[in-house]
Request: fold
Amino acid sequence: MICSRQPTVCLVAALLLGLPAICPRPLLAAPSSSAHLSAEAATHSMARKVRQTRKKPVRPAPPPTVVKDLRVMAYPDHTRLVLVLQRDVTFTQSRQKNPDRLIIELQNSLLGQAARAVLSDKEFPGEITIAQLHPRSVTVSLNMKTISDYKLLPLTRPSRLVVDVYPHMDIGAVRSSAGASPPPVVSIPHPRSAKRPARPEIKTIVVDPGHGGKDPGAIGRTGIAEKDIVLKIGLKLRELITKHLGNQVLMTRHQDMFVELEDRAKFANATEADLFISIHVNSHPQRSTKGLEVYHFGEASDQRALEVAARENGTPIKDTGIGWQYLVADLLTTKKVQESLELAWTTKQAMVAHLDSHYDVVDHGVKTAPFYVLRNTVMPSILAEIAFISNPTEERLMQGDAFLTRMAEAIFEGVKAFVQPLQTASR
Ligand SMILES: [Zn+2]
Reply:
């Protein structure tokens, strides 16, 4: 529960080497800094010191690190605070009783103007206090009475300190997440949660049929390829949305061509799309595995979600889940996370409801996984794995047009359920 990460000292050490005489103030302590120096630099440094004097060298203190900005993001189950730093900083943690507080002290640091402005905002979460209690140290204090857990994540390039705070869950507000129930709702005890911004009217929807061209995606035993199946569904979905909802639909590809994952997200961002829907076909070593699942971006919810993301990303599994937090630390907005989750649930529910009367649908639910294609989009984004090409029954179904049409209709029903109440409300 308590993060036991040791203070980061690399940059302090680097500054010591790089900026030898800026400030005459002696450094208080950086005991493990030598471990982080390059061997060569450390050797030279030591040799020089030995030649110069036998006395303990007086080392200059680095200039204070400015906390340039503070960002707060409310996620469904936690609040994320990002301290944007001028450079990496050494920090310590301690627990205080009466009141029960966790104190994170950023050594040799100053609160910048922008950060001070954020703190004076009345929407700043009440369970976190940030103050310049000493001339050269910024203190982040977490009220442990109101939170159940926290995580600290120091990031470099650019330097940031991420503090995730998990509030005590309001049990009454948590609904079951099992089976076909709606997504769990968790209350976050600060004003931001009550003041969720209204969703803007959805105008443009990007439909992203996975793979294409030289990348066939998953291939069935009969030789059918994922890239062809998802393109057919994508084109049908475009037609349904255009015809019945009137939204502009843009395709990341409308024919059998290769498009980089990164370019798909860039395209959606550049066209200022309001929703991003990626369509894929699943595969599993066990041929009996069948059904559908809808993903949104996040840490892999389970091992198989990680495997799916690795396959779709085209990366080894060992590289797929690692560092996802680094990628999203302050990239994802609260709005995108919440709305992607909602879009995923709405779509999944509608898909199951629509297909259930025709087929024996296995509902694998809504999951999260670090899909590259969902990583950089700024709008609510989901990835639907519509069926398993490795399952003989579903492979056979995907060879026929009726199933593909129904699948397009099923996704359309989900999009409609997400989009229409908003359009009605905004009129
Ligand atoms: Zn795929």
